[in-house]
Amino acid sequence: MTALQQPARAEGPSRPPVRVPFPVVDEVARHCLQEEEPETVHIEVHLPGRLDEGRLRTAFAQALGRHPRILMREAPGRWYRRRYEWELTAEPDVEVVSFPAPGRNALRDARTRALTQAPPLTLSPPIRLEVVQRSGPVEGSEATDAVGETRGGTPAEGRAGDGTRGRAPAEGRAVGETRGATPAEGRPVGETRGGAPAEGRGVGETQDRAAAGEGAVGGAPSSQIPGPGPGEPLGTVLFLTINHTALDGPACLRVLATAAEIYGGRDNSPAAAPVRTQETPPPTEETPSNWSPPARVAPGTPEPSPGNGMLVTELPLPHRPKGSPYTVNDQLMVTTALTIAHWNREHGDRPRPLRITMPVDDRPRDATMPIGNGTRLVEVPFTPEELAAHAPADMPALLHRTATRTRALKSLPRPQLGHGAALLTAPLAPVAWRAAVTRGLRRAAAPWTSTTLLSNIGRIPYALDFGADAGRAHAVWFSAPARMPRGLTVTTASTAGRLHLALRWSRALLGHGDGAHLRDLFEHYLHSTEVTE
């Protein structure tokens, strides 16, 4: 567990701040930072009502005090030091909570900032919370190249600068139609070949959500948010942006749940976590060797600007028969594998084994939850043959095999980044030398990096209830960094009986039209996992 366990506050004003060596995960991440692709995790929480600025600032400050391990900054040091260290502070160095000016593009701009502007490690805490009042449409307000700018000229007639145009909602979701980019083989974005359509729609037929409106946002935050006018939305979106070198999403969600409890005065205790038991090792099955380089996500239509792109959507939770040995997580794992296999076939890549990285988090979710980077990473393998056979009759067997693999991987004790990472971070040489070695090994090992990462947060364990005026969260999205060579991450969470999916990609690999197509493939294959046994 990399979460910080030492006391957070020095006793007496004259004592220097407590210093804690970087845990293994933090140090490896610090070695490999890249300015072009900030290492951020983003969480957005959608509330039906409005929040009072002063009360929220007070509640969040008190929540930081109840979880003091989040109050940390990178300590300065000389090049020949043997370790990076966190300096634990008694109070925040900066105002964490801000209220950007409301507007039709406020949601889009907040997402853009979450992808492009990491909170600095040198200021405590390395997070920020933006409160977007009266935001634009949830889907279709995707991040752009820069805050306050539109792409492709000024939107007109309700069409966003990313080249989407709205259509009538279907099945309770705002949908649309993508146009403007052309992928491989001269086919329009979103047009696919092969596979049975889901719910009367062709596999991968791109449906873009309602577009964001005109106007640029990005001025100084307003100290007093005016009330909404007639017909304007009342909702609020909380944007928590986290520097992933220091913290992960579940830890910061715990802090946000504490803030909700302080603000609203209502119980936000976590739901009981499922009990994970030690599994009997399954019978040996033929899986791809870890020494064999896995498949990569085939390049789509990259964008000229560096960094990450992101798309979010809301889907129905997949149905599974009562008493099934597999979980929703297993259905999502199979969905991700089939989506990438389909994408790669479309782009002419020969079939190769897939390996999907899966974070496993064993921490308690109550107020004692250790704060930091607390997940360990395991890899779930898939063979080309089992992904090629995904007809309805084959799906139960694939789901059962996947469940057997994920249960075994979750139950086995393992260092967070494997045994090799502990050797890389042993303080036997100056940290600057170890950083150079780590970056070199990362580049050399790139062909063996897993195909993608699927982070399924599962059902949000907290009510995130901010009281009568603001209400309870009805949607929560997470996204994880998507650096090359993976170039694509899939993050899911469920709230109020709905699945909230975020696709995040490296712009060096994919473009927005590619993300929309991958979303539709994911929706189709998620539906295909709903089998009757």
Structure description:
This is Condensation protein. Residues 136-231, 266-313, 350-372 are annotated as: Disordered. The protein has 533 residues and is α+β, with helices and mostly antiparallel strands. It is 24% helix and 19% strand. A hairpin with a 2-residue loop joins strand 15 and strand 16. Helix 5 (328-346) crosses helix 7.
How would the blueprint of this fold be written?
Elements: E1 18-21, H1 24-31, E2 40-47, H2 53-66, E3 72-74, E4 85-88, E5 97-98, H3 106-116, E6 127-133, E7 164-170, E8 173-178, E9 236-243, H4 249-264, E10 308-316, H5 328-346, E11 354-360, E12 376-382, H6 384-388, H7 395-411, H8 419-424, H9 431-444, E13 452-459, E14 475-479, E15 488-495, E16 498-506, H10 512-528
Parallel strand pairs: 5-6, 11-13, 13-15
Antiparallel strand pairs: 1-4, 2-9, 2-14, 3-4, 6-9, 7-8, 10-16, 11-12, 15-16
Compose a concise summary of this entry:
This is Condensation protein. InterPro entries: CAT-like_dom_sf. The protein has 533 residues and is of the alpha+beta class.
- CATH-assigned homologous superfamily: Nonribosomal peptide synthetase, condensation domain
**Average residue pLDDT:** 80
Q: How many extended strands?
A: 16
Residues in β-strands, percent: 15-25%
Which blocks of ≥5 consecutive residues have pLDDT under 50?
A: 1-10, 145-232
Helix content: 10-25%
Q: Compute the gyration radius: what is it? A: 23 Å
Structural class: alpha+beta
How many discrete structural domains?
Answer: 1
Q: State the end-to-end distance.
A: 39 Å
**What general form does the structure show?**
globular
